[in-house]
Amino acid sequence: VPPQRLQLLLRLLPTRVHQDGKYAYTYLAIATTTRITFALREDQYFFALDDVTVCDTASPSIQLLTNGDFETGSIVPWVYCNPSGSQYSGQVETGLTTMYGYPYVAYSGTDFYLDGAVGAPDYLSQTFSTTIGHTYMREQKEKKGESSERAINIGTPPNTTTAAASTFTKGQARDPVDHLEEYILDYIQYYRQYVRKMSENRIQLAKTQMVEFKALGDFEQIPTPAQ
């Protein structure tokens, strides 16, 4: 999609603040078909998304998105894409879900979208019909954990292509052992550096002592006085 046909509605950079809330934005349609896309990345914790709505301000009671609350138990008809093959990709969760001590739950109903893509974002998008020149209101409710980054784009999909259905891969829930392994590896690396430094110091000390011993050997020994 050409940049001039995209509008960035929201971008939140990594933060250590655990928060949840509701976000609302307006968009002026420039085509008869519009696509909304979520780009989600969570390197340590997870991000929950629920109750995504889009409506024409001229007809606010008409919902243009399908399954914006994920209450069908799947992402259909959302199109999911994970081009980098990121681990812990997005999936629909049901009921209270706890990850690393943080509880995630639907804002309404029982189902919601939970994403924890690591290293690179995965994407969730849906197209809907719009009227050129009309203003559209988009709302979403979200809750996030630590170190999250996400961007929301809305714009006109290319006329020459159509969105293909993507296979949704259910990500694995990350286990705290992942972090424990990182700490152990860091400690091992630190310990190796420490041992190497201590060994170098001991070798240098031994060399110095050897030089001093040889220097003492150059002196003529003085006989012990006779009693």
UniProtKB/TrEMBL annotation:
<feature type="compositionally biased region" description="Low complexity">
    <location>
        <begin position="151"/>
        <end position="161"/>
    </location>
</feature>
<protein>
    <submittedName>
        <fullName>Uncharacterized protein</fullName>
    </submittedName>
</protein>
<feature type="region of interest" description="Disordered">
    <location>
        <begin position="141"/>
        <end position="161"/>
    </location>
</feature>
